[in-house]
Structure formats: structure tokens, C-alpha cells
Amino acid sequence: MEKLTSARCKVHIDAGELVSFKVGRHEYIHQKGNPGWRNSDTEMFPIIGPTSEADFMVETPNGMAVQDQHGLLRELAYELVSQTDTKVVYLKKYSSGTEIKNSKFPEKSSAAFLTWPYDFSFEKSYELKGTILEIAFTISGEEGMPYMLGYHPAFYLHNLAPVIDTGARKITLEEVLDVGSRALEVKDCTSITLCDKKNLTITTQGFGSFMLWTEVPNMVCIEPITFYPYAVTQQRLATGFQELGKDPKVCTVTLIPEE
């Protein structure tokens, strides 16, 4: 497990997954084993959203891809590239057409293996700047490769009635719970504040929107996304793709805790 530290802040990362972000004694990250979700963060790539109703097939310019919900990146293991006291960098690589075993098969999926018709590399870094944590994602691959990107962190809730402030509206936990598994869309938004016992502001670059999800009152996922997948049918998920340019695509998420 990798650790980042500053005078007042401690960050713990397990195989690329953010498992603790603590300022003083206040923990901001959902803890594994608590009700709600078995993880504390993950990435959604190269697609976001379910694919079961489309027989797990997603159309791309290089042919059909076999993708389960939220893509295949989460099935790959991160390699630790570098580490200092305040920054750590991880990497995943994929070769076009490689069959990746689907961990949801057979209990939750009929797709035994997942594939993507492009090479890509996916870098994830954490950098601690005082009490501010910046998470950066760098996608490299063939020019024109279609992709969607979502970051899926889960935050620990200390109060029974937290509010999510988008600037334009204030969203209650009950509103998020009522939407259920589809997740609540927050469109055209790059900054959100989770108003809890200690507030946390989440700012983004390169995403554009958020979606909010939880099914329990002790945690909430505030997820930066490039595309909200429930706005279309599963057969039309490909309409949400962006394309890689000549240069790598960099997207960032910054966690700014209340001082």
C-alpha cells in the first residue's frame, strides 16, 4: 500500500485505488466493508454505462467491442510506475483484441471475456499538495480511438442529511437515493461541494458533467463523467464517444477539503 503525507493530511492507496483521504481525524473516503459498495474508487473506461441489453456489444470504427458495464479497464491491474512522499503514478496497458476475463461472469454477466479493438495506455496519478489531492488521468492511444471516461469515487458520509451543492442547485441525499441504480445526472458542471460534517469540494477538468449514485445513507458516489449513459438506449451508447487526438488526453479531479 502506497502512502502520501503532508503536515495535516494522509492518503492511502491500494493497488491504484484510493482507500483513505484523511485530514486530521476526518476521513473523506468510503471504507471497504461498510454498507453500500465493495470498492472505494474505480474508473469507467472506455465506456460508461450498462451494455447487457445490447448483448455486451459496442460499435466502434475498428469493429465491435465486447464490453460489460463501465468497460474493461477495471479488470486490468495497475503497475506502480513511481512514488515520492507526495506523488504516486500508476499505469495500465492494453493490446488491441486481447481477451480479458470478465469478473462478473457467470453470476452477473453472460460475457465471459471482454475485448477492445485498440491499443491504449491509461495512467493514473495522485499528488498531494498540502491538504489538496489532485488525481490525474492520462489516456494514450491511436488517434481517433473512441472513448468515454468516468471516475467513480465513493465518499464517507458523517451526517444523516448531507447536501450536494452544484452552485446551481442543492441536491439532497434522498434525491440521489430516489433515482436508484441509474444515477442522478448533474449536467454541464465542473465543481461540486459535498456539504457534510466537513465540506469537500470536487473540481474537474476534461470531464464536463457528474452523476451521483448511492443506495445507502452512509456513502455517496460523486462521479465526474464525459458522458451520461442513461440519456440513450444501450444500443446507442456509441453516440457518447469522444475521440483521442494526436496528443494524450489528460483529465483531472481535485479534492479540496474544508480547512
Automatic annotation (TrEMBL):
Keyword Mitochondrion: no
Keyword Plastid applies: no
Domain of life of the organism encoding this protein: Bacteria
Keywords: Calcium
Cofactor: Ca(2+)
Record's subunit section: Monomer.
Stated name of the protein: Aldose 1-epimerase
